[in-house]
Amino acid sequence: MTHQGPASGLETKFCGLNERPGLKDGYEISGYASVFGLADRGGDIVERGAYARSLDRLKAQGRQVKMLWQHDPLRPIGVWDEVREDARGLFVKGRVLRDVQVGREALALLDAGAIDGLSIGYRTIQSEKSGQGRLLKEIDLWEVSLVTFPMLPDARVETATPETGEDTRDVVESLAEALADARALLA
Questions:
Q1: Element housing 171 (H / E)
Q2: Which residues on neighbouring strands pair with residue 27, listed in sequence order?
Q3: pTM exceeding the 0.90 threshold for the entire prediction
């Protein structure tokens, strides 16, 4: 699905998540926000190399692709620590931030399986008509969002791990046990 965003000319593409990740502290996700050569549900195909100039420009300016919630520029939920093209597509790796209210909500929805999509927000720089859609040759990438509905089923989060190596629930359970032990000793 292509959608015109709030900024004039900004387009979005939705992509699915591969697995239902668990709720983690320092939650890191990685996967493909776009896969080259595959038609999305709108008929558009992203050509290998389409993101290269945009990523180079962002790097030269010391900026990064934004991680948003449902393409809302007022609701950033984390940071993409790595965004790069490889032979398969646009690989992303980043952290959903627990210190942000919407980030906590996003993690709860990810854990419950209610949210299972990624979506790119971009401007088309160069494209040509191709079948039912377009062949996207150059894209100015603005953001990659967590979203409700996927556009490209093959573009998915492939890993989801806690940054600290500990599940939040495990930490809480350990603290509760320690508190119970301390109370028993004092009784």
A1: helix 168-186
A2: 162
A3: no
